[in-house]
């Protein structure tokens, strides 16, 4: 592969404000977001959960699939799907968000999948806790990383690699990481990682490796492309940057009224309107407050108990809508005092934008 | 609604070659295409079938839902879902394609959802034939149209309307139209039209009205917005145009090798490669021939029997790949002698582009 045409960063043009390149639109066609109107549902239906797929979806045979525990383990082993399913079973609602959600709201706009607000969803994931399996494999002294490798392979900036990520022993001890084979009570679909994937609750989606094939204990830091080259907060390309990890506090609103098909602006009749939506934060921290902006005034919304330790809360606010033109917005605060900022904190790859969700609404008379 | 802000055509800018507007990217984020790599599967998995949603997805309660047969019927009635399910049950594989698939390949590019190749899928739809129910409702003499109305409502060019379409009595007699409540053996998902939708096999997707609520027999031509204002082949905005109906002959290829994440260009090793894909045509006409272009030479592919009267055929071709840079393409011919054109026939809204699927491939050495 001497003259690999993918060396460098093909397709990664400088972005132009207000217009998008063919490569960006190609990514938007291939990847799919949630329907904001479905934020009224506790659990996102199958097929309406966001999907970000780096390479091709591998079509794996469940009967033939193995997950291999190898590297610096005293007792390495491999498991069939049958064996994974025979292990203790847990079902957990988890809100997952793409690290790139909100990218188009950053100025200048970083080049990649041009998400606006829609790369989030909550599913009921069923699987088995990872920690006891790691324990069974007996990590050797000096293990500093566990690497998780998927069956999906492709090129990014000229580097061919299977999608892989890692977690430290400390992170694994903190997080309730699962090996998952069901989503919303059904076998995983191919595009969600069938037959087996990782779920790292409370972290952005890149950590939840799909099509999981290999778990490697490492006595040196894992240097996988998706761990060290992407998913970092950087201001410039030559910095190592800080890793993207826990989801930041955020909220979204079900757009009220009815849409214009092209612009998605909203039209509604005056009178009582229930504004509602969802709010979440990272790694088990609950949301304690949601505010709704109408005109220049912020109002306190009612916040429901979260659906689970790692899943979103519903919120609602009764609005007596008067004729006019509004840019509604919502803003969440978590119990650690983190609040959504009014301006995105810019970074080179456009990660973790948790500024306000704004919805343009016309109330008729 | 005197000062409706959606009057006119908000967001419908002139398009610019090579770049896309925010409105176009918004549509690409909201609507979702198939994964071309899943063309290796006979049936598209739930959640990987393309979705084009004009307004918001209505979340309807199955228990409360009724489909009303009204208008110029002698014996109008309404049915619950339970009653629809008690009627004779049929399961049919149907290949559905969005009328706008391929729009970005037209020059100049018409403004709307910027599909390239991916707005197609094949599902196993389960429901009951519509014809006997129409008969039961006894259309009056002089009925010229049956109108089908969904529960989804919004604005398009300033016109508020529920999504609706119509078929003539002659069309209904020709086509095996179904009232459908299951997709791939599971209850319809909200985004696919739950709890009840129309399937008009062999026609582009706009005919298969989702969230079906009302079937009205009409003694005058149906004038619904989605029937007379959109989904027409026009050269200029002031023409009435010809209606978009049956799917045109087309084929797609599973992109061989592995992708670059951004450009989706492909990399593969030299040697034997099975090129494969799917081919289909409209309204029950089978595909009889698929050709594959490698370099400047066209080769005959093997074509399988279609999956069903209204569903695609698999095709394959064994390629002995030599190092080089290729733009592979495929081309289908149906038994009526229709063949995919080398140039798209341009029309104002960018409908029914059935030119060749091209895939850029690098074979290493």
Automatic annotation (TrEMBL), chains A, B:
Q: Which UniProt keywords apply?
A: Metal-binding, Molybdenum, Oxidoreductase
A single Pfam family, by name?
Answer: Oxidored_molyb
**What GO MF terms are annotated?**
heme binding; molybdenum ion binding; molybdopterin cofactor binding; sulfite oxidase activity
Q: Which cofactor does it need?
A: Mo-molybdopterin
> Which GO terms of type biological process are on file?
sulfur compound metabolic process
Q: Does the keyword Membrane apply?
A: no
User: Mind telling me which InterPro entries this protein's record contains?
Assistant: Ig_E-set, MoCF_OxRdtse_dimer, Mopterin_OxRdtase_euk, OxRdtase_Mopterin-bd_dom, OxRdtase_Mopterin-bd_sf
Q: What is the species listed in this Swiss-Prot or TrEMBL entry?
A: Roseovarius bejariae
Protein's UniProt name: Sulfite oxidase
Domain (Oxidoreductase molybdopterin-binding): give its ranges.
Answer: 54-225
Keyword Metal-binding attributed:
yes
| Location of the Moybdenum cofactor oxidoreductase dimerisation domain | 244-361
Which SUPFAM superfamilies has this protein been placed in? E set domains, Oxidoreductase molybdopterin-binding domain
């Amino acid at each position: 592969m001497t003259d690999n045409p993918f060396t460098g960063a093909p397709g990664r043009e400088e972005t132009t404000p207000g217009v998008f390149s063919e490569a960006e639109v190609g990514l938007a066609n291939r990847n799919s977001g949630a329907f904001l109107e479905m934020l009224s549902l506790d659990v996102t239906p199958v097929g309406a959960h966001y999907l970000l797929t780096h390479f091709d979806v591998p079509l794996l045979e469940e009967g033939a699939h193995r997950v291999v525990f190898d590297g610096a383990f005293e007792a390495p082993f491999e498991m069939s799907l049958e064996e994974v399913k025979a292990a203790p079973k847990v079902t957990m609602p988890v809100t997952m968000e793409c690290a790139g959600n909100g990218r188009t709201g950053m100025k200048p706009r970083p080049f990649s999948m041009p998400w606006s607000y829609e790369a989030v969803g909550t599913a009921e994931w069923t699987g088995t806790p990872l920690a006891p399996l790691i324990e069974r494999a007996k990590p050797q002294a000096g293990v500093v990383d566990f690497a998780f490798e998927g069956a999906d392979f492709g090129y990014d900036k000229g580097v061919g690699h299977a999608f892989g990520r890692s977690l430290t022993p400390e992170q694994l001890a903190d997080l309730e990481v699962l090996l998952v084979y069901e989503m919303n009570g059904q076998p995983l679909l191919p595009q969600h990682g069938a037959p087996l994937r990782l779920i790292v609750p409370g972290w952005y989606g890149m950590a939840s490796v799909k099509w999981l094939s290999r778990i490697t204990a490492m006595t040196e830091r894992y240097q996988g492309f998706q761990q060290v080259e992407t998913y970092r907060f950087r201001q410039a390309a030559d910095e190592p940057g800080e890793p993207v990890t826990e989801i930041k506090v955020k909220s979204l609103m079900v757009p009220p009224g009815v849409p214009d098909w092209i612009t998605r602006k909203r039209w509604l009749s005056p009178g009582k309107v229930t504004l509602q939506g969802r709010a979440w934060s990272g790694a088990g921290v609950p949301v304690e407050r949601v505010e709704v902006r109408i005109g220049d005034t912020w109002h306190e919304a009612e916040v429901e108990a979260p659906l689970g330790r790692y899943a979103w809360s519903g919120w609602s606010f009764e609005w007596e809508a008067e004729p006019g033109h509004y840019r509604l917005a919502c803003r969440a605060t978590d119990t650690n005092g983190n609040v959504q900022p009014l301006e995105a904190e810019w970074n080179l790859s456009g990660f973790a934008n948790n500024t306000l969700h704004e919805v343009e609404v016309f109330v008729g008379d």
